[in-house]
Every structure is written in C-alpha cells, then in structure tokens.
C-alpha cells in the first residue's frame, strides 16, 4: 500500500504490472497498525493451538476458537465482536 501523498500513482504502475494489488490509502500508519494487529492475532492463535493456521482451521473447534479470539475480540473502532 502506498501513501496518497507520496507519488502513489507512479509507484502503483510497476506493482500492478507485477501482479500486486496496489491502492491509495489515506493513512499508512493506520494500515500498518491493522497489519500488526492481524499478524499478532494469528501468532497468538498458532501459539495457543500449537499448530499452523491451516491446522487450526482443519481442527474440530479450531475456527470457532480463532473467531472467539480468547474473548477479547474487538473491531478497529474498539467495539466488541459478537461471540462465535
């Protein structure tokens, strides 16, 4: 993802030609935080379940466990997610 203010139009052409999805975003900081939250959540799930995400998804109750997030699931605005 390329910041809107940093010449993103010129930067997205080579990425698009290489098969990457490129888009302009208003805040790179927000996008990076969302990425870190996703990666840390996946890391927590794999550590607690002692397997890869694929193994967790294939295990009985694995997807429900991942959706539950240990009871602390919130969206990016801080609202609680519905229970799995």
Short description:
By secondary structure, the protein is mainly alpha-helical.
Task: Explain what you see.
The protein is mostly helical. It has one domain. Helix content is 54%, strand content 5%. It has four helices and two strands. Strands 1-2 form a two-stranded parallel ribbon. The longest helix is centred in the middle third of the chain and has 22 residues. It starts with a strand and ends in a 16-residue tail after the last helix. The model has no long low-confidence stretch (mean pLDDT 74).
Keywords, separated by commas or semicolons:
single chain; 84 residues; mainly alpha; two-stranded parallel sheet; elongated
Overall geometric form: elongated
Helix proportion: 40-55%
Strand composition percent: under 5%
Unreliably modeled segments: none
Which structural class matches the secondary elements?
mainly alpha
- Write down the secondary-structure element order: EHEHHH
Domains (count): 1
How many angstroms does the end-to-end distance come to?
31 Å
Total beta strands? 2
Number of helical segments with 4 or more residues: 4
Radius of gyration: 17 Å
| Overall pLDDT score | 74
Biggest sheet details = 2 strands, parallel
Widest sheet, order of strands: 1-2
Helix/strand layout:
Elements: E1 2-3, H1 8-17, E2 24-25, H2 28-49, H3 53-58, H4 62-68
Parallel strand pairs: 1-2
């Amino acid at each position: 993802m390329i910041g809107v203010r940093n010449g993103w139009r010129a930067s997205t052409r080579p990425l698009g030609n290489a098969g990457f999805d490129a888009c302009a975003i208003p805040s790179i900081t927000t996008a990076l935080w969302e990425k870190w939250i996703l990666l840390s959540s996946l890391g927590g799930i794999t550590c607690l379940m002692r397997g890869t995400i694929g193994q967790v998804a294939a295990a009985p109750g694995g997807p429900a466990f991942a959706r539950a997030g240990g009871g602390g699931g919130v969206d990016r605005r801080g609202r609680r997610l519905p229970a799995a």
